[in-house]
Amino acid sequence: xxxxxxxxxxxxxxxxNPLTVKCTxxxxxxxxxxxxxxYPNRGLQFLLKYITGDNLVKGxxxxxxxFNKSQTSFHLKKPSALVSDSALYFxxxxxxxxxxxxxxxxxxxxxxxx
Amino acid sequence: DAxxxxxxxxxxxxxGQEVTLRCKPISGHNSLFWxxxxxxxxxxxxxxxxxxxxxxxxxxxEDRFSxxxxxxxxxxxxxxxxxxxxxxxxxxxxxxxxxATYEQYFGPGTRLTVT
Lengths: 114, 115
Fold this sequence. Notes:
The structure holds 2 protein chains of 2 kinds.
Chain A: E1 3-5, E2 10-14, E3 19-21, E4 24-26, E5 33-38, E6 44-50, E7 56-58, E8 64-68, E9 73-78, E10 87-94, E11 102-104, E12 108-113
Parallel strand pairs in A: 2-12
Antiparallel strand pairs in A: 1-4, 3-9, 5-6, 5-10, 7-8, 8-9, 10-11, 10-12
Chain B: E1 5-7, E2 10-13, E3 19-24, E4 31-38, E5 42-50, E6 53-56, E7 65-71, E8 74-79, E9 88-95, E10 105-106, E11 110-114
Parallel strand pairs in B: 2-11
Antiparallel strand pairs in B: 1-3, 3-8, 4-5, 4-9, 5-6, 7-8, 9-10, 9-11
């Protein structure tokens, strides 16, 4: 069965420092991977996805993610964090049923301090 | 496009009352998903539809919950009777499955409080 794991409940970084939010996955077949962000009192917003091609995927708000097949990871990164990046981040993988269903991780809270 | 539209944004009701949540997906999308989010349980998929047909309702917690999608532009999630443990934020999301890209677009959510 497809699954994703986000090993950190919370990540704390200082503004201006690089940030990484970790995600590992387990899939049968080729992985379709996604990152979403949820700001307080809002719905989830799509950030970026990996389907195929370049292992480094660029997305919205300056975020990028690196697909690593050997480590089965899809970590979210940003070179310089902003206080406004503070939010809840979800990693997701396409379900094997190929019906459009996504399997979401439990979420990681990112706290960027000034 | 206005994005996914949900109504109401907030609902406060008493235990035992019927609650109906509404969703209008993005025009042209053919998949629709209902999620529930709580602090304790995180984000849970309740049910999803492809081309207006329910595909998987295994996430619906019990028979008090039901969902319909009478046409491509409207879906409802109904709870009858409601209980305090149903208090949560309910999200609707839609996607265009045939594009094989699968990203889902979420509505702003309905915050339900059952007293």
